[in-house]
Amino acid sequence: GNLNRSPGRYAPFPAIHRFQALLLNGKILRLNPDGSAPSDNPFGNYVWSYGHRNPQGLAFDSQGRLWEQEFGNAVMDETNLITKGGNYGWPA
What pTM, to 2 d.p., does this model score? Predict the structure, then answer.
């Protein structure tokens, strides 16, 4: 099995946006048990999906699908079905 984790919020500062691809914030990462990146990850590194504002939890369902619960805006949170290489749109 692999380890999936999210290091948390992408910093919403304009000067940092151009470096977004280099940062791990705002992404869900997928690692092998030995700490290496799986060869079937979509970007050739640890990144499984990106564009996450503020993840608060990850869970697999009985079908093996990965779900993420994310703090939303002031009105509501969101639940996302995570897909390989998915862009979840933060920042928009």
Answer: 0.78
